[in-house]
Amino acid sequence: MPLPLFRLMPPSTLGSYAMSGCLLTRHNHTPPRPPNRGTVKRSLQVAGLVGALAATWRMYRYLQVQMIKLQSRKKDIQILQFPTDPVRRNEWISYYTFRSMIKEIIDYAFEYTGGVVTASSESSPDSWGQVRPDLPWYTLADISSHSCKENRIWVTFSQGVYDITEFVEQHPGGEKILMAAGGSLEPFWLLYALHSYVSGNLSAEDVSEVMANMEDPYACEPRRHPALKPSSKKPFNAEPPLPVLVDSFITPAELFYVRNHLPVPEVDPATYELEVDGVGSETFIFSLDDIKKFPKHTITATIQCAGNRRGEMSKVKPVKGLNWGAAAIGNATWSGARLRDILLATGLRDNQPGVTHVQFEGLDSDPANVSYGASISVEKAMDPCGDTILAYEMNGNPLLRDHGFPIRVVVPGIVGARSVKWLARIIVSGEESCSHWQQNDYKGFCPSVDWNTVDFTKSPAIQELPVTSAICDPIDGSSVELHDGNLMVKGYAWSGGGQKIVRVDVTADGGDTWHVAELIAQEGNIRPGRHWAWTLWRADIPVLAGSSQVLILLLVFVCENYVEVWAKAIDSSYNTQPESFRNIWNLRGVLSNAYHRVKVNIVQS
Amino acid sequence: MPLPLFRLMPPSTLGSYAMSGCLLTRHNHTPPRPPNRGTVKRSLQVAGLVGALAATWRMYRYLQVQMIKLQSRKKDIQILQFPTDPVRRNEWISYYTFRSMIKEIIDYAFEYTGGVVTASSESSPDSWGQVRPDLPWYTLADISSHSCKENRIWVTFSQGVYDITEFVEQHPGGEKILMAAGGSLEPFWLLYALHSYVSGNLSAEDVSEVMANMEDPYACEPRRHPALKPSSKKPFNAEPPLPVLVDSFITPAELFYVRNHLPVPEVDPATYELEVDGVGSETFIFSLDDIKKFPKHTITATIQCAGNRRGEMSKVKPVKGLNWGAAAIGNATWSGARLRDILLATGLRDNQPGVTHVQFEGLDSDPANVSYGASISVEKAMDPCGDTILAYEMNGNPLLRDHGFPIRVVVPGIVGARSVKWLARIIVSGEESCSHWQQNDYKGFCPSVDWNTVDFTKSPAIQELPVTSAICDPIDGSSVELHDGNLMVKGYAWSGGGQKIVRVDVTADGGDTWHVAELIAQEGNIRPGRHWAWTLWRADIPVLAGSSQVLILLLVFVCENYVEVWAKAIDSSYNTQPESFRNIWNLRGVLSNAYHRVKVNIVQS
């Protein structure tokens, strides 16, 4: 059995990991420069980073479970203090390859444990990756000859050589780790706590080679608008300031939220090829020009991240995921070829037996060539009114790199995760995409399901999103002046599945009085079920500066007058938002669509 | 200005109305036999009941406004006590033509005023319908010559003759009352309070004629299963006991809730004809056999009344409508011809310009030949996956009369009000149905909209219904035994628009712990968007018989242990139910889909 996480990070160990130049540096240390930034990519496989990256997601999930277990096992542990200042905590974490992921994990642990992450006193982590003179020495060549069960499966971590054959057999996710067989799981191996499997030492020269072959896969990211606020930089994930959203019905491309799962690929449009498989035995290849020859179809569609407004849900209880505000959503016009037309051209028929899903793969991939992937139902893909397109334009211009240049699927009405960017491949299938993001992420769960009990096979992948809305102006915590006793509130509302927003209700008195907002921007002349675009609204609502809302701080004689404003939207199915996050809480913090509530300070004009 | 309702029912007046043999009888009186049950229908128009019925709905809405006003104007009123026992109250109300409607109004008033309906002291209601010797005498012939603005508009009530020209001009709904012009508004005139317009007397013989020509339009209703609990008998509206619903995935036809708006028509299948208009200039006629020649299409679909669970919402604040429990919903197999096939046969094409709606009219109509009517979008009607059918079978048998024999539209995923029974006519159109039920009923509103501010043009007609669920067993208020500390809870869940139920969560501790219910009956192998049938579920949930839940009544040493169980469903769009009724309350009590909550008494086994 692997040891839980808390055995992995005692203070004394952190120094040794800093030495290996990868993930963690000792508290108070300046992050070290990476050993060799410019080294070429090709020898990465020799170093085995390949496998490390491939196994990352499994480890990630495993970690989540361990995090939950932390609290219940405090009796035999030492205390390790994380910096309470988030800036310091970020410095403390090295900036290497998967910095953002590790940062997220540690942030999570920090939230979960109130800043105290614990380390077991019974572990002997100093030995991890260290030379064990009692064990034999191997070269990378030796190790690479142990890559299957028959020869035993070896991997390296720092100077340690580990036999993980049993681990692979014992763990449901073990097969993925096989991708690292015969190589190194550096730098993530430490997270798996497999020191009991130690079987030898790696020669010092080979360790240098491993470390020398690391380079930053995020070195070629595009420039971004400075107003975008990143929730993670590598991969880049960012949202614009909330009030920007209500400035215009169409969100400017450079201010549209960015959700990247991996580094942004560099694609040459001249050589770009889209592969379509699964219709009969033939593989079809389309160049960018081929795609542009199909009738150009333009839609206005909102794309929203499944985790939009996660930050609000996480206030109830921590969740795992990027800490999105309410601006991980945007509305744009998208032009491209209908997916239906492309698929018809490859010979797919309506209601073709055995075909139930259309899978997409992106050109964004990890060093193991595992691409971002997702799928939608064939009904959505083929629906003549479904408006799924392979977009090559956003707001009339070629896509920005961050938004999928040169081709992005736009699946309107559906969670953004299925609108695969940098589209490389379409697979017509009887199965959903087997990708992590379809199978083990982007699903909803009962509020009582935690990382110990979660079973991702039990929930359907999110496709259509539920109705939501947000107040964009004023923002939470701001000070506002009333005009004639009224407060002007503006926001957006949207619902998945092409549902129209039929009403937005706003209250400033906890629901005693609801005011119907004016829908100031909504696509007109749209047939039922094709309302892909959001609705912008405003409400000029009377605010009672009543005594109940006045907090007089006696000592400083400061009079503060806070008002909490709530908004809820109703769509054409008359579905509405749940009132609070408590009963829709889920461990991934997705589908966070409870009433949006902002508290503002009313100042005297 | 018309006087509000409270002027209309002082005790002294009720006797005079009882004399007229129609609506109300004096408290404690046995309801009188109708004066002449067997009289032929044709002379109804002479009596002017025609217009009375046509104007009913306008009056009804007007009444709603007045009801709301009751509370604020108590200072100048007398008190009129209604019987507190509902059985007695029902007796007290006569059973004549629109008894159920009047009953509903009085029930409403009763709820709203806590059993005290008020009457103005300043009114002189004794004079309504009475002879005024100072005014001239007219015959019915005289009155019928005053039927337009130019000649003044006259109507009668009992022996009074009223000039309503000004009333018609002053009221937005006045044009409808014109249908009664030149006749009598008996017996609903009293509700309009137009005594200030009195202009003469009707001869005594003519009054006899008016009364003689009334017969019970509900005389030929079908026999019903005794287990159905009526919320109104005329028209018949009833639901089965809630636990019946979870006995079987398919609800037996005779236990399926009945929602009739008008008397059940008697239809001879041999002469039945369906008319289809609006596709080009031709009218198409289909016999029952013609319809059966189209491919027979069978679907399993749940039909739910828009007012299902209204009773729960009305506990927050009274609403207008039948007091439905949670069983105004049922699930059946329906077989018939696809509406799409019928429409294609008449020449309608997909995306035909100018066509946006498909209207339906039933054979059920009032004496003014105003039929029940509704419409759906042409997209739903023509969608090859929309499964809208003209059903002639329910659960493998010909439809019961209460369910639309011989032909009922079944529009799966859509509010029951659009599944028009006793289908007489289909109109392909660029407009929605102009019927009351499409335009001025079955719409949702903001909780702060009341009958003074409501504008029915501002809300869309309900089509797809939001996600809902209910606990059917145990029922609210029952006593249950635990088994191994667990309580078995069963219920249904459903969502409109073909959304699948993906999860039902149940809690017995106010949401601290949610349990995922087992979905025990759900249609398998259904493609996305076509989950028309409900899902039955059960949850065996641990119930803590904790001290906080034990109420010890000290004096009688009775130990009662109440537990409140909540259920909420989540559909495939991950929409879920709102928590409570407070913020979804609407004046019509529709869309009542908040968490279902039942309180049960845990008894020791």
TrEMBL record, chains A, B:
It is found in: Mitochondrion intermembrane space. Residues 135-196 form the Cytochrome b5 heme-binding domain. Pathway: Sulfur metabolism; Energy metabolism; sulfur metabolism. InterPro entries: Cyt_B5-like_heme/steroid-bd, Cyt_B5-like_heme/steroid_sf, Ig_E-set, MoCF_OxRdtse_dimer, Mopterin_OxRdtase_euk, OxRdtase_Mopterin-bd_dom, OxRdtase_Mopterin-bd_sf. GO terms for cellular component: mitochondrial intermembrane space. GO terms for molecular function: heme binding; molybdenum ion binding; molybdopterin cofactor binding; sulfite oxidase activity. Its cofactor is Mo-molybdopterin; heme b. Signal peptide: none annotated. Keywords: Heme, Iron, Metal-binding, Mitochondrion, Molybdenum, Oxidoreductase. Its EC number is 1.8.3.1. One of its GO terms (biological process) is sulfur compound metabolic process. It holds the Pfam family Cyt-b5. This is sulfite oxidase. The lineage of its organism: Eukaryota, Metazoa, Ecdysozoa, Arthropoda, Hexapoda.
